[in-house]
Write a structure and sequence with these properties.
Elements lengths: L3 E5 L6 H14 L4 E5 L10 E3 L5 E3 L1 E2 H5 L3 H4 L4 E4 L7 H12 L5 E5 L10 H9 L2 E4 L12 E5 L5 E2 L13 E4 L1 H6 L14
Helix pairs in contact: 4-5
Amino acid sequence: MAQLYFKYGAMGSSKTANALMARFNYEERGQKTLLCKPQLDTRDGDHMVHSRIGLEYPCVYFHEMRQMDEEELKKNACIIVDEAQFLTKEEVLYLVHLVDDCGIPVLCYGLRADFKGDLFPGSYELLVMADKLEEVKTICWCGKKAAFNARFDAQGHVVKQGAQVVIGANDQYIGLCRKHWMLGDLGPDFNGQGTGD
């Protein structure tokens, strides 16, 4: 039975790498997949999903997938959505339709909350609607689980004001545990360079 999965994690938890590995695992076994992402995410180039560890693969944009014939979509063993935090409520409900009415499993990967600790709209809807929730884990500089995303400025100070989405600023984010996110503490060895997926 098809299900909607939301696999979320902080910056640096390898969500995109996991999405690309899931695609590879299906296709290595002869099962077709469809990889997509919201067009808002253009940092990896046109129609590309790229992980910071060097994995990459072409994708379609979410709105392009929606224009595809449902019979064509049903030929996929699953649909994989990267950067799912950028989806709208309507787009998440479309994924629910694909799962419930078309029988297509959907795997969504994305951030849960922004640098201010607020849920992204797409993440909120996925937390409500997903059949399965799975945290993709990473660690803070202190060794505890990193579940929060800190944005920092050029001087290495944590900021908690500003636009929710800043595309292409991955070097300004780092995953922290709750304590260090609340304190704005990037760690003793912080050199002004953030990490990412």
